[in-house]
C-alpha cells in the first residue's frame, strides 16, 4: 500500500529543493521520471546493450563515407538503394536541386487535383456534372462553370506564377560555375555536375555549391571567412578553419588532385550547427567538426581562394534539409468558417429534401390530374421528387459560397501588404521594415490573450556596454569620466567611469587587474577584420564583443589569431601565445576555456562563464568567493549581465596526460560531444577566481508604454528568460510589469498551494465525490495585483518534469507476472493523471496573476510553457523573440513574432511576423490586428447574408411553381451575381474599413477586447446573418409578387409576366445588398462609394446588354430574356416596386442601428462620439457613425 502511495507522491520529499540559480538540464534529457527501473542490471544485459550500441553506432555514425577524387567509389553496390521496385540508385544525391512542383506536362492535372481536394471545389464539380443531366437540372451549366473556372483560374495563375519563379531560381542556381578537379587539374564546371567526393576551388564572393570540408585557403593557417545570410540571415562574418595537416600539404593543384583521403561522418541531417566526422589520411585519423565545414549557401568573404571536398550534395545538404514544410497554422475564424460551411451544407440538404417531399405531394395531388402539365414521361411522384431533390441541390447551390475562400485569401493578402507598408513600424537605424511572413493569420492578431516574450534582445536592446567589474573582491564603479587617450587602440566608445582602475592598470602594481583584462582579450572566439586599416571585431554574441572591446580600451588588445596562436598587445607590448586547446562554450556548459602556453613555457587555463557553473569548480579555499558573490548580487539587482573570470596553472605532466584523452575524444565516432564534455570537466577543476564583469543591456525605447497599453487591452504578458532571478525581477520593474503594489509569488510559495490542491483533488476522486467540484476555485482572493516569478528548476519540480538518464532498451528483461505488469501500468496511468492535473492547476494559478516571469529556463521549457497555456486555457497565444533559443517557442505559439536583433535572423526566419523593435507590437495588435479582425468578421457576416438573401428567393418561389426546381432569376444573373454584381464592395470593406482611426485604436486599448471575446463573429452572429438574409429574401420576393397581382402598365399591358418579375426581384436585390454594404461601412472613401454605385450601374448596364435583341439573334438558346429589361424598367410602377422593396429591407436596419447606438452603444461608438464628427479619419475620407 505504501509503495502505491509513493508512486503518486507529487514531490520527491527526500530530494532537496530546486536551486533558483541553476539552469535546468539539457533539453535533450527532459523526460519524465516515471518508469520503474530495476535496481541492479544483469551482467548479460549490460553486455548485450553495449554490443547493440556499438552496432547502432556503426550503422548510424559511420555509414556516410566520402572518398576524395574517386567517383567510382560512390557507385559501389553497398552504396546503392532501391527505388521504384527493382531500380537501384546511389544514395549519394547529385548537386542539382529541384524546388518546383510542376512541369509543362504535369501542371494542369496536378494543379486541378490539388484544387479539387478542397471540399468546396469538389462540391461544385459534382454540381457541374449533375447539371449535364437533363432530367434533374433546370439551371444552365454555365451558371456553375463560369464561377468555378474563375476560382480555379485565379488559384492556378497564382500557383503558376510561383512555380515559374521557382523554375527560374533553380535554373539560375544549378547553372552557376565553379572549378572542379578533373583529370588532375581544375576545370570549370556547373554546380549541377558536381558530385560527392569532388575537390573544388572557390574564389572571393563566390557562393558555396555544396556542403564541403575546408581543405586549405589562401589565408594564413587556412582561415576562411564566410557570410551565412542565406542560411540564418546573419550578415556578420564567421570564420572557418581547416585541419593543420591539410593546410600544410594541400595548397598546390597537384597535391589536391592526388588527395585520396577518406571521410567517415554522420548521415545527412538538418542541424546547421553540428557535424561529427573523421578524416582518414596517410594512416592517421583527424577529428572533424562544424568549424571545418562550409555549408551550401554560404558566401566566401575576405578570402581570395579556398579548396574543399564535397561531403553532401544537392538534396542532402543541410540548407535543403531545412527547407521542408513548416507547420501550418490556422486561425480561429478559419475553423469557425469551415464549421459554418458544413452547417450550410446540412441546411441545403434539409431544404432540398423538404422541397422534394413537397414536389412529391404536389405531383400526387395536382400534377397527375392536370393533363396540360403532362411531359410525356411516366415517372412516379416519388421518382419525380427524387429528381427534384438533385434539382434543388443545383438551384440552391449558391447557399454554399464558392468564392468565399478565394475572397478571404485576397483580403488577407491585402492586409499583409498594409503591414509591410506601415512606415510607423519601420526601424530606420537598421533599415528594417515590418514584414508579414504569412498571409493566413492576420485576423488572429486581433484575438491575442497571452504574449510570451523573451527578454534579451526583445525587451532589451542586446547592445552590450561594459559598465562595472569586480577584481580581487574590489568593485570598480561610476565615479568620474575616464580618459583613454593614452591608449592608441581605444575605440573611443567605452564610457567607463572609474579613473582609479585605469591608474592601477598603468602602474601595474596589482597583477590580478592586468590578468583580469588579459583573460578578456584571450578567452573568446572573436575574429579580427582589419581590411580597412582599423581593428574591427566580428563576435558571435554581443556579450563577447563587449568584453573584448573593453579589454582593448583598457590596454589589452586582441590583434590576430591563427589555428594555434593568438596575438595580443599588452599595454603596448605585442606578444604571441600558443593556444593548446579551446574548450568550447555551449548551452549546457555555460562557460568556455582556453589553454595557452606562455612565452616562458608555463601552461595556464583561462576560463569565463556563468557564476553558477564557475563557483562549482572553484578551489575550495578561494579567498575571493564571498566578496565576489556579494558584488554579483549587486550587479544582478541593477539588471546587469554578469560573468565570472578564473584561471588555473597546469603542469606539463598534467597537460600531457589530459591532452591524450582530449585527442582521443576529439576523434571519437560515438558520443563525441559527451566524451569532450567529460574531458573538459576533468581539467576545469580547482580554478582560482579573478573577478566578475557586469554588462549593461538597456531596455528598448517604448517598452514600458507598450506593456502598459497591451495590459489595458486585457492581454497578459509572460517573460521567459534564461537570466538570473534577480536580473529578471528588476527588468520586470523597469518595464513596469511589476510595480510597488504588486504582490510577488515565487516557486516555493506556490508549490505548497499546488500540492494541497492536488491532494484535495485526489481525495475527492478517491471518495467517489464529484472530482471536478472545486477544480475551478480560485487560488487567490479576487482583486489585487499579483505576479509570479518562477525559475526553471522550480518549473520542472512543480510540473513533475524530472531529469532521467537515457537508457537503451535492454535485450534481456526481468521476468514479470501479469499482475506485476498490470500494477506497473496502473501506477504509470495514475502518475500521468497526476502530472496532467498538476500542470492544469499550475496554468490556472499562473493565469490568475497579472504577469508571470519565468527565469533560468531552457528553450524547450519556453515552448512547454506556451503549449500548456494553449492546451489548458484554449487561449490565443503570441510568442516574440529575437534569437535561436526562441525558435521553439515561436513555432509553438499560435502566432510567432521575430525581432531583427543582434542575435541573427533565426527567430525572424521561423516567425509569422517580424519587425525591428518590441514597441511596434502594440501597433501590430491594437491597430492592424484589430482592424483585420473587424474587417474579416464584417466581410464574413455580409457574405453569408448576401448569399442567403439571393438564394432563398428560389425557396419562396418554389411554393408557387409546384416545387419544380424552377429558378426565380435569369440564368446569367445567377452566374454573375457573386462574380461581378456584389463582390467588389464587400472586398473593399474587408480591405479598407476602420471603425476608428489608428491613433484612437492605440489611445483606447479597451477596444481590443471584443476580438478576444469573439464578439463579432460566432454562431450567434452567423444565424443573425442567416435570419437577416431570410427576411431580405422574403421582402425581395413577396413585395414584387404582391405588386404584380392584378396590375396593368401605362401601355395597357400587364407587366406581371415571369421575366419582368425576375428583373424586378433582381434589381431590388442588387440595390438592397449594395446599400446594405454601405450601411455596414464605417470608413468611407471614394473607392468604397464608387464600388457600391459602380456595382449597381454595372448590373443595369450588363442586364440591358444581355436583354438586347442583337445578342439574342447570335445566341438564341442562351439569351432568352429578349427586351425584358427595357420593357419592364420603363414602367414607373416597377421602379416604385423596387424602391418600396429596398426601403422595407433597409429602414428597419437603420432604425435598429440607431436604437442600438443610442441605448446599447459599443466601445467604438463611445470613442467616436467622444472624438466628434469634426475629426475625420483622414484628409481624403470621412467617417459615418454606425452601430
Automatic annotation (TrEMBL):
GO cellular component, one term: endoplasmic reticulum
Cofactor: Mg(2+)
Domain P-type ATPase N-terminal: 75-145
GO biological process: phospholipid translocation
Disordered as annotated region, ranges: 1-44, 1168-1187
Binding site for Mg(2+): 454, 456, 882, 886
Protein name (record): Phospholipid-transporting ATPase
Lineage of origin: Eukaryota, Metazoa, Chordata, Craniata, Vertebrata
Amino acid at each position: 500500500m505504501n509503495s502505491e502511495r509513493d508512486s503518486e507522491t507529487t514531490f520527491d520529499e527526500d530530494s532537496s529543493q530546486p536551486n533558483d540559480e541553476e539552469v535546468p538540464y539539457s533539453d535533450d534529457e527532459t523526460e519524465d521520471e516515471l518508469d520503474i527501473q530495476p535496481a541492479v542490471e544483469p551482467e548479460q544485459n549490460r553486455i548485450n546493450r553495449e554490443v547493440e550500441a556499438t552496432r547502432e553506432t556503426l550503422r548510424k555514425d559511420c555509414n556516410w563515407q566520402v572518398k576524395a577524387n574517386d567517383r567510382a567509389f560512390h557507385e559501389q553496390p553497398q552504396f546503392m538503394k532501391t527505388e521504384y521496385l527493382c531500380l537501384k540508385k546511389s544514395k549519394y544525391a547529385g548537386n542539382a536541386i529541384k524546388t518546383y512542383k510542376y512541369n509543362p506536362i504535369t501542371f494542369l492535372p496536378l494543379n486541378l487535383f490539388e484544387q479539387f481536394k478542397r471540399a468546396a471545389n469538389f462540391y461544385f464539380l459534382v454540381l457541374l456534372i449533375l447539371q449535364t443531366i437533363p432530367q434533374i437540372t433546370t439551371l444552365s451549366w454555365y451558371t456553375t462553370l463560369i464561377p468555378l473556372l474563375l476560382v480555379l483560374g485565379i488559384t492556378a495563375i497564382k500557383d503558376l506564377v510561383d512555380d515559374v519563379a521557382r523554375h527560374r531560381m533553380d535554373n539560375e542556381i544549378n547553372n552557376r560555375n565553379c572549378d572542379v578537379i578533373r583529370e588532375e587539374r581544375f576545370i570549370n564546371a556547373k554546380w549541377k555536375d558536381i558530385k560527392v567526393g569532388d575537390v573544388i576551388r572557390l574564389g572571393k564572393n563566390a557562393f558555396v555549391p555544396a556542403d564541403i570540408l575546408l581543405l586549405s585557403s589562401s589565408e594564413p593557417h587556412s582561415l576562411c571567412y564566410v557570410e551565412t545570410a542565406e542560411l540564418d540571415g546573419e550578415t556578420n562574418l564567421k570564420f572557418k578553419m581547416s585541419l593543420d595537416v591539410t593546410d600544410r600539404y594541400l595548397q598546390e593543384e597537384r597535391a589536391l588532385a592526388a588527395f585520396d583521403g577518406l571521410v567517415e561522418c554522420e548521415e545527412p541531417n538538418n542541424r546547421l550547427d553540428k557535424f561529427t566526422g573523421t578524416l582518414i589520411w596517410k594512416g592517421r585519423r583527424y577529428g572533424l567538426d562544424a568549424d571545418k565545414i562550409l555549408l551550401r549557401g554560404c558566401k566566401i568573404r575576405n578570402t581570395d581562394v579556398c579548396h574543399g571536398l564535397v561531403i553532401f550534395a544537392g538534396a542532402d545538404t543541410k540548407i535543403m534539409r531545412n527547407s521542408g514544410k513548416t507547420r501550418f497554422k490556422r486561425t480561429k475564424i478559419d475553423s469557425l468558417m469551415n464549421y459554418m460551411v458544413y452547417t450550410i451544407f446540412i441546411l441545403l440538404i434539409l431544404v432540398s429534401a423538404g422541397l422534394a417531399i413537397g414536389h412529391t405531394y404536389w405531383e400526387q395531388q395536382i400534377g397527375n390530374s392536370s393533363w396540360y402539365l403532362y411531359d410525356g414521361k411516366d415517372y412516379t411522384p416519388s421518382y419525380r421528387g427524387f429528381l427534384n431533390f438533385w434539382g434543388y441541390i443545383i438551384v440552391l447551390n449558391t447557399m454554399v459560397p464558392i468564392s468565399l475562400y478565394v475572397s478571404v485569401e485576397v483580403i488577407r493578402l491585402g492586409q499583409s501588404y498594409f503591414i509591410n507598408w506601415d512606415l510607423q513600424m519601420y526601424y530606420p537605424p537598421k533599415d528594417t521594415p515590418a514584414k508579414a511572413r504569412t498571409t493566413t493569420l492576420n485576423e488572429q492578431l486581433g484575438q491575442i490573450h497571452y504574449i510570451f516574450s523573451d527578454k534579451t534582445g526583445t525587451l532589451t536592446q542586446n547592445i552590450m556596454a561594459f559598465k562595472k567589474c569586480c577584481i580581487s573582491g574590489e568593485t570598480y564603479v561610476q565615479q568620474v569620466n575616464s580618459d583613454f587617450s593614452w591608449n592608441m587602440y581605444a575605440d573611443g566608445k567605452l564610457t567607463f567611469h572609474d579613473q582609479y582602475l585605469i591608474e592601477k592598470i598603468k602602474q601595474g602594481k596589482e597583477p590580478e587587474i592586468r590578468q583580469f583584462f588579459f583573460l578578456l582579450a584571450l578567452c573568446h572566439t572573436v575574429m579580427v577584420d582589419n581590411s580597412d586599416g582599423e581593428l574591427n571585431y566580428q563576435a558571435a554574441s554581443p556579450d563577447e564583443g563587449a568584453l573584448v572591446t573593453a579589454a582593448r580600451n583598457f590596454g589589452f588588445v586582441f590583434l590576430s589569431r591563427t589555428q594555434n596562436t593568438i596575438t595580443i598587445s599588452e599595454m603596448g607590448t605585442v606578444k604571441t601565445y600558443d593556444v593548446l586547446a579551446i574548450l568550447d562554450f555551449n548551452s549546457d556548459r555555460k562557460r568556455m576555456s582556453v589553454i595557452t602556453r606562455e612565452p616562458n613555457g608555463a601552461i595556464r587555463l583561462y576560463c569565463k562563464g556563468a557564476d553558477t557553473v564557475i563557483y562549482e569548480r572553484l578551489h575550495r579555499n578561494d579567498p575571493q568567493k564571498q566578496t565576489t558573490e556579494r558584488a554579483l548580487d549587486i550587479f544582478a539587482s541593477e539588471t546587469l549581465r554578469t560573468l565570472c573570470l578564473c584561471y588555473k596553472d597546469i603542469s606539463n605532466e598534467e597537460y600531457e596526460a589530459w591532452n591524450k584523452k582530449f585527442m582521443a575524444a576529439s576523434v571519437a565516432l560515438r558520443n563525441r560531444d559527451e566524451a569532450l564534455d567529460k574531458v573538459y570537466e576533468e581539467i576545469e577543476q580547482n580554478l582560482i577566481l579573478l573577478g566578475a564583469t557586469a554588462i549593461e543591456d538597456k531596455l528598448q525605447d517604448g517598452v514600458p508604454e507598450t506593456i502598459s497599453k497591451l495590459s489595458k487591452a486585457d492581454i497578459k504578458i509572460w517573460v521567459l528568460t534564461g537570466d538570473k532571478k534577480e536580473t529578471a525581477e528588476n527588468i520586470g520593474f523597469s518595464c513596469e510589469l511589476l510595480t510597488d503594489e504588486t504582490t510577488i509569488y515565487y516557486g516555493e510559495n506556490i508549490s505548497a498551494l499546488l500540492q494541497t490542491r492536488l491532494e484535495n483533488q485526489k481525495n475527492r476522486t478517491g471518495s467517489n465525490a464529484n472530482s471536478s467540484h472545486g477544480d475551478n476555485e480560485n487560488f487567490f482572493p479576487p482583486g489585487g495585483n499579483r505576479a509570479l516569478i518562477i525559475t526553471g528548476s522550480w518549473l520542472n519540480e512543480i510540473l513533475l518534469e524530472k531529469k532521467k538518464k537515457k537508457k537503451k532498451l535492454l535485450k534481456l528483461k526481468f521476468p514479470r507476472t501479469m499482475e506485476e505488469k498490470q500494477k506497473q501500468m496502473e501506477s504509470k496511468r495514475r502518475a500521468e493523471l497526476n502530472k496532467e492535473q498538476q500542470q492544469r492547476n499550475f496554468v490556472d494559478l499562473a493565469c490568475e496573476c497579472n504577469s508571470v516571469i519565468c527565469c533560468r529556463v531552457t528553450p524547450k521549457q519556453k515552448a512547454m510553457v506556451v503549449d500548456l497555456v494553449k492546451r489548458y486555457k484554449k487561449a490565443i497565444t503570441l510568442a516574440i523573440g529575437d534569437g535561436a533559443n526562441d525558435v521553439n517557442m515561436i513555432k509553438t505559439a499560435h502566432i510567432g513574432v521575430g525581432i531583427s536583433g543582434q542575435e541573427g535572423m533565426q527567430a525572424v526566419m521561423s516567425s509569422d511576423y517580424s519587425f525591428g523593435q518590441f514597441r511596434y507590437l502594440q501597433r501590430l495588435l491594437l491597430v492592424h490586428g484589430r482592424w483585420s479582425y473587424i474587417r474579416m468578421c464584417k466581410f464574413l457576416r455580409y457574405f453569408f447574408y448576401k448569399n442567403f438573401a439571393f438564394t432563398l428567393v428560389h425557396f419562396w418561389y418554389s411554393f408557387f411553381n409546384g416545387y419544380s426546381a424552377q429558378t426565380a432569376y435569369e440564368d446569367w444573373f445567377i452566374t454573375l451575381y457573386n462574380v461581378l454584381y456584389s463582390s467588389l464592395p464587400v472586398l473593399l470593406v474587408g480591405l479598407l474599413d476602420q471603425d476608428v482611426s489608428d491613433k484612437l485604436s492605440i489611445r483606447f486599448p479597451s477596444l481590443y477586447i471584443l476580438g478576444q471575446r469573439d464578439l463579432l463573429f460566432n454562431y450567434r452572429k452567423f444565424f443573425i446573418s442567416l435570419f437577416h438574409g431570410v427576411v431580405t429574401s422574403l421582402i425581395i420576393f413577396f413585395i414584387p409578387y404582391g405588386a404584380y397581382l392584378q396590375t396593368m402598365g401605362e401601355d395597357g399591358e400587364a407587366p406581371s409576366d415571369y421575366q419582368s418579375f425576375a428583373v424586378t426581384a433582381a434589381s431590388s436585390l442588387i440595390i438592397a445588398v449594395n446599400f446594405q454594404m454601405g450601411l455596414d461601412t464605417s470608413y468611407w472613401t471614394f473607392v468604397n462609394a464608387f464600388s457600391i454605385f459602380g456595382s449597381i450601374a454595372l448590373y443595369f448596364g450588363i442586364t440591358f446588354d444581355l436583354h438586347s435583341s442583337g445578342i439574342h439573334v447570335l445566341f438564341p438558346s442562351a439569351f432568352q430574356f429578349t427586351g425584358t429589361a427595357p420593357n419592364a424598367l420603363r414602367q414607373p410602377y416597377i421602379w416604385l416596386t423596387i424602391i418600396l422593396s429596398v426601403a422595407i429591407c433597409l429602414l428597419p436596419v437603420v432604425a435598429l442601428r440607431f436604437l442600438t447606438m443610442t441605448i446599447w452603444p459599443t466601445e467604438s461608438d463611445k470613442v467616436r462620439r467622444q472624438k466628434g464628427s469634426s475629426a475625420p479619419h483622414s484628409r481624403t475620407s470621412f467617417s459615418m457613425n454606425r452601430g
